[in-house]
Amino acid sequence: MLDQAIIEFDKALRTVFAPARSVRPVPGEDIPDAELSEAERRHAAALMRVNHVGEICAQALYQGQSMMSRDPAIRDTLRQASQEETEHLAWTERRIAELGGRKSLLNPLWYGGALGIGLLAGRFGDRWNLGFLAETERQVEQHLKSHLDTLPAADQRSRAIVEQMKLDEAEHADTAMRLGAHRLPAPARGLMRLAAKAMTTLTYRV
């Protein structure tokens, strides 16, 4: 138990404070960077900061859910999704730097809150755990779609990253449903949307 606690704590520290790494190539890295106005650059950097925080939260959610899951197959699914989310962390982190932006100052807070939610979701059993995962990914997919609608048209590098992230999130949701996820009740889905709205609004600025 102590060894596992140390491993999980190390994972949290690495997610929040250490540079993330990607096995796959960064989407759009072969696309020349566009000339953006200062306002466009700030807006794109802020959107990528929001996406980076979303991946911080995803890491924490998956960690909490995996810790509570009783099914080895589901734990493996959560770990696989977590590995892909780590790549998303690397991609968004790199793009933020390219745009001259910064990561959210509240990342430790976001991580701690999402970890608690993941642990709570896991207590309801694996089917509801998977349901929470599926709903989270569906909402993130919609959130990324909205970013594609507002990113500067010329910023093809950011758009390529967001497009690939959206595809990955959809696949995670589909996998959760194939494993037997229960659909969350409407009030729970609504609360998740409200929480996500508050997080994204604050992260765009801080």
Characterization of the model:
With 206 residues, the protein is mainly alpha-helical. It has one domain: Ferritin. Helices cover 77% and strands 0% of the residues. It is built from seven helices and no strands. α1 runs antiparallel to α2, α3 runs antiparallel to α6 and α5 runs antiparallel to α6. The radius of gyration is 17 Å and the shape is globular. The N and C termini lie far apart (36 Å). The model has no long low-confidence stretch (mean pLDDT 88).
Multimeric status of the protein: single chain
β-strand amount: under 5%
CATH H-tier superfamily = Ferritin, core subunit, four-helix bundle
The total count of helices amounts to 7
Which structural category do the helix and sheet elements fall into? Answer: mainly alpha
Based on the coordinates given, report the CATH architecture: Up-down Bundle
Q: Provide the CATH top-level class.
A: Mainly Alpha
Extended strand count:
0
Order of helices and strands: HHHHHHH
CATH topology: Ferritin
Biggest beta sheet summary: none
Radius of gyration: 17 Å
